[in-house]
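Note to self: the last two entries modelled the partners one at a time, which told us nothing about the interface. This time every component goes in together.
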Amino acid sequence: MKVGVPRALLYYKYFPLWETFFSELGAEVVLSSPTNKRILNLGTEAAENEVCLPVKIFYGHVISLKDKVDALFIPRIVSVEGGAYTCPKFLGLPDMIRALDVDLPQIISPTFNLKLGLREFYRSVYELGGFFTKNLFKIVMAFQKGLNKLDSFENLLHDGHLLNEALAGRFFPAPKGRLRIGVVGHPYNIFDQYISMNLIERLQKKGIKVLTAEMVEEEVVDKIVTGLQKKLFWTYEKDVVGAVFHWLDAKSVDGIIYVLSFACGPDSLIQILIEHEAKQQGFSVPIMPIVIDEHSGEAGLVTRLEAFVDMMSRKVGSEKS
Amino acid sequence: MKLTFPHMGTLDMVLSDLFSRLETDFIIPPKTSVKTVNLGTKHAPEFACFPLKVTIGNLIEGLEAGADAVVMVGGIGPCRFGFYAEVQNKILRDAGYDFEMIVLEPPTTDIKDFMKKCKKIAPKKTLWQIFQAVRVGWKKAVAIDEVEKKVLKTRCFEKNFGDTTAMHKKALAVLGKAITPREIQMARDKALSVIDGAKKDFENNPLKIGIVGEFYVLLEPCINFDIERYLGQKGIYLERSVYLTDWISFSKKNPVMGLSNDEVAKAAKPYLSHFVGGEGQATVGHVVKFAEEGFDGVIQLLPFTCMPEIIAKSVLPKIHRELDIPVLTLVIDEQTGRAGIITRLEAFIDLLWSKRKKKLSIVG
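The predicted structure of the combined assembly is written out below.
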């Protein structure tokens, strides 16, 4: 059985787990190709126009993949930790895709909700495994193997490797420059090279060491966000806020670039938290938000990056002298 | 301490009644206007949802008028609304306002904290007295909504243009004076009969349109260009998916709308099988219900970038294909103009009439 996984959204978080799980159960995993103009156009045509860019891209991947596979894997990931949700869009994603007016293969969409506890979570795992085998033991083993794979993937990130390198399993030496820039935002925006217009590579070419939110360990994030007056109820945004707060606190970066996609709900509010915190610290670490959508142009990004990097090198230079 | 709060439809009437019962000082911010929206847009993040922008404008106007405390409700997500209070607090402080922020989180998360906040709002009253005040105030709030529901349903029959709106004002004035439970009960009956006072012509067979969507833009006529009045005066029978008390109510039953949350979720199931925060699933469920009840069309209202409603909007085409019910989606934000909305409404009404005529000619 060929299972299609769209190379978008939570692919960037959990693909090592999914891939291992499916192939252990004897399924063939088919990934859509990296985002390109065609996929973007397919997505923008199919999706409602108010939908945010990453979800439009997801639509594009689904449509480009649908005729090549026997089933599409579009899980409904409601919650990945107790007391918090993912983004509402992830809660409705399978239904949004099913409402498309095109012929779709079977859609495998188990609901994962850790808010309901581990028991319900594993029930969903069995349900998912049940598509491929009736052997409970095999499902458990496959899932365990997947979790191990995910663990080693996340360890690579914590060791300071970039997400796309860890996913591909090919590593390049980090640039030797003095400047360190933290790039935060959703991994499906930053590491989709088409959406982010090679943001990270552009910085690296200038000899800048790039840090991302994935490199900050969970414990550090959880500890630092306890300082917030109100607990953030979006897990992925909590990671972003936690990373920024950690960097601001430890002064471990010279500047922060914050990538948001236009019309992203949670991003619009945590932007306030981040800017408020930076203001409290007297803007000692410069922050630049970059808002992207399907109309973003490369020239605009390049100009802003150059200005930001110039400003930072001047700042760091004057501090050293 | 002088409290202020954001506007939302008749919320000011409900809260001023409650605060007077609690002997708490309060200031009602000026009615939502272009100035309010401009203030909010200036301070709020660019693509925050529209209600956040407007409520920030309300709070600024309230604080400028002399309030020194803000009362808001919280939430546990995943809709952005749950984080409003936190963000409003940060934005207003960054803008240089000094005030106390009282955020009522749902009592199910932390009952002690909830009671503490209640005491803060009404320091002169005991918890029992607060409970009693809320209980009586609630009755009045439900009555206000019942009157509103009746206005929506009967405006299309009015003989003289604008009569129903005038009677609505009168009815609210009657309710406003009621204080004790007995008085509220009497005022409710009187207010409902006041609405009947407008001359009606029940001969015509009006178009039936259901209105669904995000509660804030549904409830706040200043923001939705009062489209309910516009449609009613065009002779259209209206029903709405949510009323103020339905939204506040913790119970799953909706006292004014009637349908329980479970029934609505069940209707939505084939199209949106999981809740998505806010009214996303309810919107879908209500569209299905309206289609089943033989409504001619549905209008969905949502603020720009509203996540749950966008999900609902994304599955609506499927409902349209399967149940053959036309849905007009209106997205509202600070850039929306009245003329644009009216043009689209007129076109929608024309479409519904021609659809009905077609149906009749097939039957005949």
